[in-house]
Design goal:
There is one protein chain. Strand 1 and strand 2 form a beta hairpin. By secondary structure, the chain is mostly helical. The protein has 2 domains: about 120 residues, Winged helix-like DNA-binding domain superfamily/Winged helix DNA-binding domain (Arc Repressor Mutant, subunit A), CATH 1.10.10.10; about 80 residues, no CATH class. It has 6 helices and 5 strands; from the N terminus they run H-H-H-H-E-E-H-H-E-E-E. The strands form 2 sheets. It has a 3-stranded antiparallel sheet with strand order 3-4-5, with no helix packed on it. The two termini are about 25 Å apart.
Amino acid sequence: MGEMNTSNMAITMSELLNKLHDVKRAYLWKLSQKHNLTPLQMQILECIKKFGKDAPPSSYEIAEEIMLSRATVSVALKALERKELVVKTFSGKDRRKQFLALKGRAEDILSETAQYEDIIVRGISRLPEKSVTSILNVFIHILGMMYDEGIVDRVAVCLKCAWCRSVSKNLYQCDVTGRRFSIAEAKIGCRNFTMKEGEKHAAQLY
């Protein structure tokens, strides 16, 4: 009976995650139309903001992050440049390396997308810390399963990175930056991510 209830709850949770995805997609579509953008262009602006001003991404990193081809991303980036929402910057050491930064009213547009994330963060913040940690473990586990079964090509999560090592119970360290963190502070989409050799990504993290 317990297994049946767990199975039913798993199905319900999957349906709820799909619904949240649908809500986000509809919300972005609405904002995209308002600002004369496509949903993909809006997604790319969000991605650039996520990398931050101190570590602007390349077009290759954006393509990897949103899991689309570089050609598709390149077309969208050119449109964003024409709309003066994105600007290319160059590496001081190598002028051949180009990075993308937000420009003009891009920040104002993105401030409107924050409402969706804010509601989710506030909702999760009301849960006990142990519950949040368990949810994080489950999501990371599911991402690993999706990688193993070929649904996604890359799962850039700290706990699956070759540079990440366990220091003590629920405490990890990045050997690139020296940062120590708990599961709740693990990053997703870090540019220093390197896959652990021979590790099965669907391994339990509990």
